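Q: Could you predict the 3D structure of Extracellular solute-binding protein family 1?
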Amino acid sequence: MKKLTAIAASVLLLSMLTAACGSSGEKDTATNTDKTNQNTTTTEATTTEQKDEPVTITVQGQKPDKKEAIEQLNLKINRFKAANANVTIKTDDWEYNPNEIGIKMAANNAPTEFTSYLTEGRTLAEHSWAADLTGLIGSWEHKDDLNPIMTKPVTVDGKIYGVPVDAYVMTITLNKKIFEEKGVPLPPLDWTWDELIDAAKKVNDPAKGIAGFIPMGKGNEAGWNWTNFLYAAGGDLQTVVDGKVTAAFNSEAGLKALELYKNLKDADVLPKNWALGYGDALNLFNQGRGAMVMCGSGNAADAAINTGGINKDDIVVYPIPSLTKGGKHTGVLGGSFKVINPKANEAEQKTAFNWITSEYYTDDFLNAIDSEITTRKNEGKIYIPQTIFYWKPESEFGKKFTDMLAKHDNVFQYDPTLMSLLEGKPEAEYEAQQTYAEIATVVQKVLTTKNLDLKKTLDDSANKIQSEVYNKIKVQK
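A: Sure. Here are the predicted structure tokens for Extracellular solute-binding protein family 1:
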């Protein structure tokens, strides 16, 4: 799930004034030398006194309880203002919500820049809720250093509507200690669905309240989790052909993914209360009441280590298992990007872009992360990096980032093999959140209903979202 128009206008105005004064002087040279000198003096004074016009922007803030993040944000604000004295920065801790963005834009009270999900790139662009940044990025010195994995989801019809921040590929996090206590060897990183079920059965311990596998079973999260297995089986949530969006999850791949959930339920390896949202599932894992949980990249590891107090050496991150041995470990690719409010004027948009990118590819950025890692160590916490960033990992800056992480002993390490196995597939282009919500009802039926006709349930769900949502989508050609 952030403006030089006034500055540019000032420069343009100054150029016009200078040109006008020069022209007048040329006309008067033969008749009035004193007037020419007076105009020249006035022009010089105007040039000397011209200053950047003041610009005020509202940027993405942090919730009051995130003291560490607030401190880092304030430091960045101070650094930016030191280099841009004409800019006033306000903060707004509103967090992007698909159900609120339309209201915010209609009321004209959305921040100048804010963070959104990569899934929302097309929606924001087509509703004119995100500014077209193609020109700003095109003239940026680092345009060729951006990670294409992250720019693709925010590119619509060849135009870029956001600045990438970071991304994740869905993974499954294991509690190694539970495996060790049960005398169960860890499955191979290059694992399959069958090996997932087998491992879950062996570590499952209902008497101790320990589930073999923790899925998210309520809210949009339920559909989000299930989609990973749909992708791993080679399926899609939807297709877009000739301007028409069509539900595609009621496919053979979708049926296999739904059968996996039924097999997990039949194996009795899920928590008794499986109706878990994002926070619920992670809390259960943090408490040592589940051996495996699905989440984005290192987010579950972060919560388990820094909130649950689980030793970092007892946590390991796995890719989504492949359907068959040697298959792809495809998981949902998500993340965040910065949006600039299209209702902001040109100067505000330019300033917001400069603010967002002010420390991209800089030592200031590296120093900020370095400082955050040091602070975490002083607090007894571990830093868990994302797996995908806005930069190309093989770039010079990417290598500098890796070298900086290597200086610290409180940085969580991913297995290099994991990084080679991870394969991300972007979320649905259209109405991803509504699609997840609809699929969540299917997941819940599988976990509660005996003798459920899985294919019919998938077909009914696909037909419902087709008629209620997809048929109303107008695809811009």
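Q: Anything worth pointing out?
A: The chain has 19 helices and 13 strands.
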